[in-house]
Amino acid sequence: MYDTAIYIGRFEPVHQGHMALLQRALDSARHVIVVMGSAWQARSPKNPFTAAEREQMLREALPEADRTRVQVLPVRDYYNEAVWVQAVREGVARIAPEAGRIGLVGHFKDATSSYLSAFPGWELIHMERQGRIDATAIRDAYFGATPDTVRTGLSDLQGEMPASTLAFLEAFAQTPHFPALQEEWRMLRRYREAWSAAPYPPVFVTVDAVLRCQDHVLLIRRAHAPGKGQLAVPGGFIEQRETVWQSCLRELVEETHCDQPEATMRAALQAVAVFDHPDRSQRGRTLTHAHYFDLGNAPFPAVQADDDAQLVQWTPIGALAGMEEAFFEDHFHMLDHFLGLTGARPPSGR
Question: pLDDT (tens digit, 9 = 90+) per residue, 275-296?
Answer without folding.
Answer: 999 999 999 999 999 999 999 9
